[in-house]
Write a structure and sequence with these properties.
With 70 residues, the chain is an all-alpha fold. It has helices at residues 3-15, 21-28, 32-45. The longest helix has 14 residues, at 32-45. It starts with a helix and ends in a 25-residue tail after the last helix. 6% of the residues are buried.
Length: 70
């Protein structure tokens, strides 16, 4: 799922406290409990909460570049 979309939906809920959490959960494809978890993370860490921890890293199971495939 797009991190920016999650951010926009959760930011909308925080900015408008009377927002519909159930609708947000359906649009994000997650549970109401996870929406509450994302709201808490957004309040604590801001936008960086939605950035995946492995972004920019090479996968640990990737084939090394110096390996030749024939």
């Amino acid at each position: 799922m797009d991190e920016n979309r999650k951010y926009e939906v959760i930011k909308g809920l925080v900015d408008h406290p009377d927002g519909n959490k159930q609708r947000a959960a359906l649009s994000l494809g997650c549970t109401l409990r996870h929406v509450n978890r994302m709201i808490a993370g957004y309040k604590k860490y801001g936008k960086e909460f939605f950035v995946h921890g492995n972004r920019g890293r090479k996968p640990s199971i990737a084939i090394p570049d110096d390996t030749s495939i024939t």
